[in-house]
Amino acid sequence: MNRIFNLELSPTLWRTCRVLAGATRLRLLRLVLAAPGATVTWLAEEAEISLSRASQELRRLQSRGLLRVARQGAFVRYAPEPDPLVPSARPLLAALKLTFALGKSAQDRKIQRQATGLSHPRRLLLLGELLDGPRTIPMLQAALSIPDDAVYRHLRLLEQGGWVRMKSGVVHVTRSSHPLRRCLTDLVKSNR
């Protein structure tokens, strides 16, 4: 069954996942959630990075709709408020808050792996196809017109992210109750 992924959200979702795959950005997002309205200077000091790096990484998070920026004189402050123009921002921010509440470094690594798994449009297409049920690699290639080597490469990254499992030539979507995983799965399902 050949499915065309909604290309309006597709770039946003995979690019958002690419942003969420960064350890420094996750650390900054965690800090903003803990101290809404914090200044870039304070966030840079807490994250132990330069002011320019903090500013750049915070702008990336803000561009995905996950943060609101407010300028007050010489200060720039960030708050965890979803951009209403970015449909995926509200559910993603809620899922990230729940995930961060589960713990620190182990959860951050899990977020990075899951986000990396969906940080390319072809991986979104593959996952979307697999959400309809298990498929063989030839079935995926035929349905999505993706070259052989690319299918294997992308499936490997989906597997490393915990999204799929390959067994006896058949690819299955794995189950998970992880809040971010559920949110991302819902976003993929709703935009096919």
Helix content: 55-70%
Q: Which class of the largest domain in CATH terms?
A: Mainly Alpha
Mean pLDDT across all amino acids: 92
| Residues in β-strands, percent | 5-15%
- Count of spatially separate domains: 2
Characterize the overall form: elongated
Could you tell me the number of beta strands?
Answer: 6
Name some characteristics of this structure.
6 strands, elongated, single chain, mainly alpha, 3-stranded antiparallel β-sheet, 2 domains, Arc Repressor Mutant, subunit A, 10 helices, 11% strand
What does this structure look like?
With 192 residues, this protein is mainly alpha-helical. It has two domains: 10-86, Orthogonal Bundle (Arc Repressor Mutant, subunit A), CATH 1.10.10.10; 109-190, Orthogonal Bundle (Arc Repressor Mutant, subunit A). It is 59% helix and 11% strand. The protein has ten helices and six strands. The strands form two sheets. A three-stranded antiparallel sheet has the order 1-3-2. The longest helix has 13 residues, at 51-63. It is elongated and about 60 Å long. The two termini are 12 Å apart. Mean pLDDT is 92; it is low at 1-11.
